[in-house]
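COMPLEX REQUEST
Ligand: FE2/S2 (inorganic) cluster
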Amino acid sequence: MNALKDSPKVGTMTLDGMAVEFTEGETIYDVAQRQKKQIPTLCYDPRLEAFGACRLCVVEVEGIRNPVASCTTQAQPDMVVRTRTEALEKHRKTLLELVTSENRQLSVDPLSGFASQELSNLVVQYDAATGRFQGKQSGTSNKDDQNPFILRDYDNCISCYRCVRVCAEQEGDYAINVKNRGFHTQIIAEFDNDLRDSSCTFCGQCVQTCPTGALGDKKALRAEAKPGEITKTRTICPYCGVGCSVDILTKNEEIVGVQPAMDGPANEGALCIKGQFAFDFVQHEERLKKPMIRREDGELHECEWDEALDFAAAGFRRVRDTHGRQSIYGVASGRAPHEAAYTMQKFIRASFGTNYIDNCSRS
Ligand code: SF4
Ligand code: SF4
Ligand code: FES
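STATUS: Structure written out below.
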């Protein structure tokens, strides 16, 4: 293999008066991001193929009459690009006013989803007039969808298709799609049914990428009226061995929701249904707090740890003595840290003399 031949070609362009380098395949937006330029976007999600729908990311390129979408335009050698001029800012503001003329609800609770404030923040930033172009509206709310996790309020939809694209490109699920065009555009689940009747895995990625709160986290929104600030705490999902990074949302020390960390190295904004929505166990009133032993009356009784461990050890010994060492098989939990997984295999190998040890994360 010729390494030199395969290495990406580097070019130079001018960005806001500065000579900057780019590599082959980069868009103007990629280069501008690296240079810490503030270019507004709505249909852009760095994890997805660029789509070019909202046109908010427009920039001026010398020699091209109209502004171009920076997220879909490849950087070229000797290009001269301006990312922030009076004309561009006016253009962006007008685009925002067109978008918001359709958007009925700009005050969105941040519990809705990770990106749910993007549109409302831009409206404030550009001081956009939301009533300027009011008229016909597209999208019909589907708030009656009976699924327990995802609010589908398409009154707030701006047809950026981030939800459809994340479902297809990241989750590989294709559970939602676009029906019709123009003012009749509508995001639908398969055959226009409830999400429960589609192939949706309830990973929540569409909720977290939606920039308007049209898709919302129903479970987190239960805490909408609760007093207190939302606090985010970065941690690792405890459900399996992948190690997805999450932000736990709390209000007054109570867990009210979970959002995936977009910069999590193992998950890059993705989660499964358990990591995303199954957090009630943490504060559940029936959560086990002490070990329990099933005694001769057939009922489970709370006990102390020493007694529980002696009881379990006696059980293992009885099985080994009665049925032989190969009657015992250990499956370590994917929720356990490395040290515990190591101890588990040592326990099975050293105590029983077998290699019958596995880990649930392997399946
Ligand atoms: S529901 Fe949200 S993510 Fe999907 S197209 Fe509408 S605004 Fe975009
Ligand atoms: S929750 Fe996941 S699988 Fe279901 S529609 Fe959204 S992105 Fe697709
Ligand atoms: S962000 Fe580039 S067109 Fe929407």
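REMARKS: The pocket of FE2/S2 (inorganic) cluster (ligand 3) is lined by residues 41-44, 52-57, 69, 71 (CB under 6 Å). The chain has a mean pLDDT of 93.
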